[in-house]
Design a protein that fits this description.
Radius of gyration: 21 Å
Number of helices: 14
CATH class of the largest domain: Alpha Beta
CATH architecture of the largest domain: Alpha-Beta Horseshoe
Bound molecules: iron/sulfur cluster
Number of strands: 15
Strand order of the largest sheet: 7-8-6-5-4-3-2-1-9
Oligomer: single chain
Number of domains: 2
Largest sheet: 9 strands, mixed
Shape: globular
Distance between the termini: 30 Å
Order of helices and strands: EHEHEHEHHEHEHHEEHEEEHEHEHHEEH
Structural class: alpha/beta
CATH topology of the largest domain: pyruvate-formate lyase- activating enzyme
Length: 378
Amino acid sequence: MEAGLYLHIPFCTSKCHYCDFYSVTALPRKGEIVEAMVKELQTETGFLGSSKPALRTIYFGGGTPSLLQAEDFTRLFNAIKASYDLEHLQEVTLEANPDDLTPEYLAMLRQFPFNRLSIGVQTLDDAGLKRINRRHTAAQAKQAVLDSREAGFTNISIDLMYGLPGQTAEFFRQTVDEALALPVTHVSSYALSWEEGSVLYKELMQGRLQQASDELLEAAYFELNAVLAAHGFQRYELSNFAMPGYESKHNSSYWNGTSYLGIGPGAHSYNGVLRRFNLPSIDQYMESMRRGEPARELEWLDSNARYNDFIMTGLRTTRGILVKELEKLFGVSKRYYCLYNAQKNLKNGFLVYEDESLRLDEKGLFIADDICSDLIWV
Ligand code: SF4
């Protein structure tokens, strides 16, 4: 099966207060890092089991990939074209910050193979945006979506967050309503997660902020599900909703076990037997690429680890865990292990088992992690 390619662009011009992703503000080093990524693209094809692997999806994530300019994309796409088979390429996504998406920038993007944008809107409340130190305003975010459509992008995803400090259920609902008036085809929505390295987490520890209650988070999530469904969006994964035919092919590959190669500092890769993590340090990345010995951590996946991946990713999707496939891949004992451990959650209605598929029921959506830990191999 064709693989996915992920390029991690580790720059941001400022740090959002909820974020602990690996990114730096060292923009002047962009050129040398892009060059190192070109080298990694050329030398890592073997991870996907071929000298010229076939790609189905390419995803530029970050960081802020929309800080790259035409000359950077030219270098990266030339390297991709030279070393990978793009005959079956279907989806090429750029993650973008709204304030980068000027009409000129969008026109430049159209010269490259991008056919999908994922725009970090987060909220359409200016005070909320300021609170989390986003660079853009609500008006800029809306304009970016409209300009993207105007530039010819028909596959536009937006990210929305709930559980932000001070965000009431009404504010979130207002954001969702305003967002759905825009020409978007896909929505990813996540509750704010209080990451230890983030500014918000420090403020929480200092008692300057309060976490949203579980009740508020749950209400926001179910409200989001209902409103999106009423607008024709189908939930296909816990946090992802799409108009029919607009599901993210790249992200779906993370949930259906497709191999992907991650390029750049902090990028992850997976090929069915090995998970690999490029160290999240530009200095180490550059130095190791110079030596020709990339700085990485490796995790070889035994059958139990692969079974756990299968459970965790399957349960997140509306398709669920395909029990026949589970048995084919891991044997009859794992099939019984999974179904035996599912009993409690089947009885209390958090899981459903039908058509040989074990899925989260509506009631189980909000406690998916707990249900998952009942099913994995320990
Ligand atoms: S959320 Fe995105 S744009 Fe903001 S600091 Fe993190 S990686 Fe950068």
